[in-house]
Structure formats: structure tokens, C-alpha cells
Specification:
By secondary structure, the protein is α+β, with helices and mostly antiparallel strands. The protein folds into 3 domains: 166 residues, Globin-like; 126 residues, Alpha-Beta Plaits; 99 residues, no CATH class. It is built from 18 helices and 5 strands. A 5-stranded mixed beta sheet has the order 2-3-1-4-5, sandwiched between helices. Helix 3 packs across helix 5 and helix 7 runs antiparallel to helix 8.
């Protein structure tokens, strides 16, 4: 307890002890202990909803035990005992912190105690039928003592609560870091200690689906600021509904990383839920233009989470101005292959690729658009023309132009595959830069 709290409490005690009306007041506290404690407990439960809303029987049990501790301490002090360190207050606050009970409710309970004890002490004083002047002096001294006592226990409780909350947060951070390391880096499935850690955290329960999300600011230098990186992590956390998935979220290696898990199905007889990664992608679509996000595909085992992390990293690297959120499972395989090939693919492109790019630029992109529409229409010229809102002869003309430039007939499956790959290679390069 702070020194100034001890000093002011001692001063208030000395003034109150000098009153000849204190002994009969304390005697009433001793004689009617059960009634006083019942009134105290009932008033706290009635006035502080948190005690009943918590639905934690342990909280109410410990509240019933805490009242007698205050009764014994107040009687001890008023009968001449020295001011102690209020260890029972400190321990109660630590227990409430462990149960995530609000500090404001604890302090409100202290105010209820202030009123209850002061009321019984005044009643005991009045039973002595004192002169008015003595009664006024006692009431003033009692008010000072109860105020200082309530302030003292509030200070002790707040400090103990904050310290225990900090310790719990650090422990939770350590557990989260350990879990993330195990899940993301992989582990030996025969390691009993690791299995125990994952089992306690619920990651070895059956019928679960996992996916990994990676996020980074468009301006990568912002991730070097711990506060900005943490804000991004918090925003990702807030965008995902609590009912969607359980999550482990942290900032590491200049990225926000999240391991999400949800039930694939409630039992072996029920249909599987929709893809977790697809549902996550829908929620993160509103993340805004200042962030790039990659989402892995679903995996059904913790042993596959390292693979999911690599998928999410690849997806995030494919994100860009035109597509801020990339879902690995929804990305076509050729696009993935082109991205992985990177600059090496650019060096291996056929000699006619540059001429095709130049001609397409001069025609405002219609050659590439026609090749993609023709492929999407399963090489049906009429359907491709409808997609492009042009005459079929226009499609034939553009395909012939491509053939003149490249020497490849786009109406051949293998030739069309090569042409689309070259077209996508240019798009992929632009997107990733």
C-alpha cells in the first residue's frame, strides 16, 4: 500500500479511537456479525450485477468468504490493532483477475461495504444515547475512517488486479507464441509434450478445419512500426466474427499471421460446413485498400498448417492493386505456376511474345481479351463473340491476326494453351510489381 494511504488511514483511526462512543459501536458489530454480513452480501449482489451475470459459482462463494475478512479487519483496527498490509484484499483481487471479473465491480462492492459498515457503526453509537455534540464528532470521525479504509482497499485491489492481469496477459502471450511456433513450424507427432500442449488448446479435436491468413500493409515499411503492425492485427481480428473461427493472431517477420480453425462438421452424420477459407475471404474483402491479404486453402490436420502457411504467403505475394485479397484455393493453377516461375519465365518466353504484347497494346488489349474469351467459351467462336459483344467475324479476324504474329493457330488446343500462358505471364508480372 502507498505510504500516504497508510498515513491518512492511521490518522483517521486515531481520531475515531479517541471517541468514547467507539466501544459500543464496535460491540454491535461483534454481536450481530451474521446479520451484518448477510446484509452486506445481499446489497453487493443486488447492486453489482456482475456478480450474478458472471454465472460463476466460485465468484459468489469467494464473495461470501470475503465479507467476513473485511468484518474481522475493521473490528481489529477499531479495537486498536495496527494497520496491516491488507493481504486478503490483494489475494481476492488476484482471484477476480484470474476469473476475468471486472475491476469496476470489485470497487463498487467496496462502496457497498463502506455504506453497510458505516450504517451499523452509527447504529451502535446511537444505542448509547450520546449527547448531540459527541454524536456529531463520532459521525465525522467514522466518515473519515470509512473513506480512508475504502480508498486503501481500493488502491490495494487495483494494484493487485492490474499486476495479475499483466501476468496473465504475458502468460497468454507466451502460450500463443508457443502454439503458433508449433503449428506454423511443424512438430514431431510422436512428441508427447507437444501433443499435450495442442490437446489442451483444443487443436487435436476431431472434425476441424484450419486455414492460415497473412496480411501486410501496401507500404511494407509500415510493418516496421510495432504499433501500426499491431493495429493491423487488431483490425484483421475485428473483421472476423467470433462465431466464424477460433483464431491465433500475431505479428512476426513483418507480417500479420493468423491461424484460424473451425468445425468442419458437427458429427460424422452431418454434411461438412462450407469452406472456411472461402468464408474468411468474404469477411476480409472489406479490409480496405491499404492492406494485402493472402488466404490459404483449408487443411484438416495440424500437421498440414505449415503447408497452409506457404500457400497463404504465395497468395499474399500475388495480391496487388487490382486484387487486395487473394484466396489460394480460388486461384487457377496456371496463374500459380506463372507466379512461381517469376522472372525465370520471362527469360524463357518465345521470341514472338514481345511482338504479341506490342500489337495488343496498339489495339487497346483486344487481342488478349479475345484469346481469353475464346478459351472461356470452350473454343466456341459464337459464344466468344457473344461474350465480347462483337460479330463472330471479328473474333475470326482477331484470331487470324494473332496467328500472323505468332505463327500459332489459336483454334488448336495446344496452341491456345501456349498463347494464354504467354498472355497470363504478362498480367502476372504486372500484378506482382
Amino acid at each position: 500500500m502507498a505510504d500516504f494511504r497508510i498515513t491518512t488511514l492511521i490518522d483517521a483511526l486515531e481520531r475515531l479511537r479517541s471517541s468514547r462512543l467507539l466501544p459500543p459501536a464496535v460491540a454491535l458489530l461483534r454481536q450481530h456479525t451474521t446479520a451484518l454480513l448477510t446484509e452486506l452480501n445481499d446489497s453487493v449482489v443486488a447492486e453489482v450485477p456482475a456478480f450474478t451475470e458472471s454465472r460463476d459459482p466460485v465468484t459468489l462463494e469467494q464473495l461470501a468468504m470475503h465479507g467476513p475478512q473485511h468484518h474481522a479487519e475493521i473490528v481489529r483496527l477499531l479495537e486498536g490493532g495496527p494497520v496491516g498490509n491488507l493481504g486478503f484484499v490483494r489475494e481476492h483481487a488476484r482471484l477476480r483477475a484470474e476469473h476475468r471479473f471486472p475491476l469496476e465491480a470489485i470497487l463498487h462492492a467496496h462502496r457497498c461495504g463502506h455504506r453497510t459498515f458505516a450504517g451499523w457503526l452509527r447504529q451502535g453509537m446511537l444505542l448509547a444515547d450520546p449527547p448531540a455534540e459527541d454524536a456529531r464528532g463520532f459521525v465525522v470521525g467514522l466518515a473519515d475512517f470509512m473513506l480512508e479504509y475504502t480508498d486503501a482497499i481500493g488502491t490495494v485491489a487495483s494494484a493487485a488486479y492490474a499486476e495479475r492481469t499483466r501476468q496473465l496477459a504475458e502468460a497468454a502471450e507466451d502460450r500463443r507464441a508457443e502454439l503458433l511456433n508449433l503449428l506454423l513450424d511443424g512438430y514431431d507427432e510422436s512428441d508427447a509434450r507437444v501433443a499435450a500442449v495442442l490437446r489442451r488448446a483444443g487443436y487435436l479435436e476431431g472434425r476441424q478445419t484450419f486455414c492460415v491468413v497473412l496480411a501486410q500493409s501496401v507500404d511494407a515499411t509500415e510493418m516496421g512500426s510495432p504499433s501500426r503492425a499491431r493495429r493491423l492485427a487488431d483490425s484483421i481480428d475485428q473483421l472476423l466474427p467470433q462465431t466464424l473461427a477460433r483464431r491465433l493472431i500475431d505479428v512476426r517477420d513483418g507480417m500479420v499471421i493468423a491461424v484460424l480453425s473451425g468445425m468442419r462438421r458437427t458429427s460424422g452424420w452431418t454434411a461438412p460446413a462450407a469452406s472456411l477459407s472461402a468464408r474468411v475471404a468474404r469477411e476480409l474483402a472489406t479490409a480496405g485498400n491499404a492492406v494485402l491479404i493472402g488466404i490459404s486453402g483449408d487443411v484438416t490436420s495440424t500437421s498440414r498448417i505449415p503447408t497452409a502457411r506457404r500457400q497463404a504467403l504465395l497468395a499474399m505475394r500475388m495480391a496487388g492493386i487490382t486484387q487486395r485479397v487473394v484466396e489460394f484455393a480460388a486461384t487457377p493453377l496456371p496463374q500459380l505456376m506463372i507466379h512461381l516461375a517469376g522472372e525465370e519465365l520471362q527469360r524463357l518466353l518465345p521470341s514472338w511474345a514481345g511482338s504479341l504484347y506490342d500489337a495488343d497494346d496498339k489495339l487497346a488489349g483486344v487481342l488478349m481479351d479475345t484469346l481469353r474469351a475464346y478459351a472461356d467459351a470452350d473454343m466456341n467462336v459464337l459464344k466468344a463473340a457473344a461474350r465480347l459483344s462483337v460479330h463472330p467475324n471479328t473474333v475470326y479476324s482477331r484470331l487470324n491476326r494473332v496467328s500472323e504474329i505468332t505463327g500459332l493457330d489459336a483454334r488448336s488446343y495446344h496452341a491456345l494453351t501456349d498463347l494464354i500462358t504467354v498472355a497470363d505471364a504478362r498480367t502476372g508480372t504486372k500484378t506482382s510489381t
